[in-house]
Amino acid sequence: MAQADEVLAFGVQTRDERAILESAFAGRYPLRCLDVVLNEDTAPLADGYEVVSASVNADLSAPVLRRLDTGGTKAVCQRSTGFNNIDLDEAERLGLYIARVDYYSPYSVAEFAWTLALGLDRNLPRATIRTRDFDFRLDGLLGRDVHGRTIGVIGTGKIGESFARIAAGFGVTLLGWDARPNPACEALGLTYVPLPDLLAASDVISLHVPLLPETHHLIDAPALSTMKPDALLINTSRGGLINSEALVKALKEHRLGGVALDVYEEEAGVFFYDRSHEVVADDVLARLMTFPNVLVTSHQAYFTRDAVEQIVNTTLANVDAYYAGRRTAATLVPRG
């Protein structure tokens, strides 16, 4: 039975996040952490909890929101910025308060995107595997200088701007694509161009746009066909930005230099879990993992102490705002 004001946090799957959550909430609200992700099957666990917190891979579709409402939940505070997984219209109809994390360290994701790009370019995963076996040959490890290359930044908000600032330090040509140009990026020397032009000219392409209906499969077969055959594609934003089947086809046909994915469109139920003792049911993901020029990480770009502390503190502020009946920049649906 939930205590008064107790918050139920779903999807707390690391000791690091749990410790930060418990420290922040201590003395403010009783907190119960669960490692299971919020979805239709797990929603009954929230019965009796007025406030729940959901993780990035939560399913907050209409059926889940209705089940939460039936169980007495009145507020959902999501610990992520993206909210394409939330049925906001249904939440408003039910009178549920919905909040997200409107901002956290953009440097965490931007720095990790460059970590992936450089690791891919210099074949670090392959080199590390070799040296662990005391194989110190350089065959197949030839990389390229970043200096002098053309870098394409798709989405130039806070994270894209941070990525571009790092890129500028390498001495590169910067191209950008965004519906809303960022003057700070233009001051770095970035030139905004149509998306096909960016894809055709860039040696490294990094995705930093949100997943919306208009950006779903933004990188599809036609887009992939316009890229340089030695281009590197980096995605630390949302998996649904890339058509994964088209990506596999392009890789099989040697039409890309390499791909680094911190996100994957069917990652729910896979990322954040140990599936090492199971048969992989996702044929597309299994195929992607076989390419020597593909680097996959498990949605960890945001995972720095700085960023997680900001996420947790914003979540705590969202709980405060709910009880106070206040609307903030992080509120998606105000208290009904």
From TrEMBL:
Source taxon at top rank: Bacteria
Keywords: NAD, Oxidoreductase
Positions of the D-isomer specific 2-hydroxyacid dehydrogenase catalytic domain: 16-329
InterPro entries: D-isomer_2_OHA_DH_cat_dom (IPR006139), D-isomer_DH_CS (IPR029753), D-isomer_DH_CS1 (IPR029752), D-isomer_DH_NAD-bd (IPR006140), D-LDH-like (IPR058205), NAD(P)-bd_dom_sf (IPR036291)
D-isomer specific 2-hydroxyacid dehydrogenase NAD-binding domain boundaries: 115-301
Pfam families registered for this protein in UniProt: 2-Hacid_dh, 2-Hacid_dh_C
PANTHER family assigned to the protein according to its UniProt record, in alphabetical order: 2-HYDROXYACID DEHYDROGENASE HOMOLOG 1-RELATED (PTHR43026)
Family: Belongs to the D-isomer specific 2-hydroxyacid dehydrogenase family.
Protein name in UniProt: 2-hydroxyacid dehydrogenase
Species: Catenulispora yoronensis
Classification of source organism: Bacteria, Bacillati, Actinomycetota, Actinomycetes, Catenulisporales
